[in-house]
Batch of 2 targets.
Target 1
Amino acid sequence: MEEQYGFTITNTPVRVMQVGNLTSYTFHIERDSPNSTYFENLVVQNDSIGNTTAHIIKYTPFMPMMQFAEHNSYSFVGDSEVTSIVYDDNTININGRVITVCRNLYRTMCNGKSDGSCTGSPHIVNGACLNYSPNCIF
């Protein structure tokens, strides 16, 4: 898959999120020809009936991102572009054409702090949000 789509999964921690019966794995990726104006992630999702999908999400920031050490998260303001990729042969029909599925991209955010209050800066949800301030997720 990496050779086919021209990227390499970096040696950084994988972000795992579980919501209900859906498990999502987010990997940071780098292109063979780097570009400093954007960054990309590979997102692989498994649902409750064993379906696996994969997407490359390209993030182009409008302004510098702020990191929140307390949450091991960051703020992001910019464009996101989703490209579905063939993860396995289940997404190819009998004629060899890729089956296109329309998807919406939603960013789950949190403004929680480690004390459980919802008065922090909005940031992408992480484990601390789920553990300490689940009511602050939007």
Target 2
Amino acid sequence: MPLPPGIPYLAKQLPRVLAPPLVVYCAKLAIERLGNTIVPTWITTTACLLSGPALFIVLVQYRDYGHRREAAAHGAMMPPALSWLSWGIVHALHKPR
């Protein structure tokens, strides 16, 4: 019986998911050993939980920056983006007339 396709996929994604919290934990250990200080558990837990989303935000911003630079190198402009504060297209569609 062959493995379901989800298990090999999850095995391939495991390093990507575990890398940010592992980096945070290693930094915690380095700070404790080199700085002779104790990092509270709640700070370590919060940092580990937020490291994945924080990395995602940084990667998306970096990708957008690269797209803007590439467009500028070709003399082009990026199309305007929808504002998160105005609910984007949903707000425009439900605007009273």
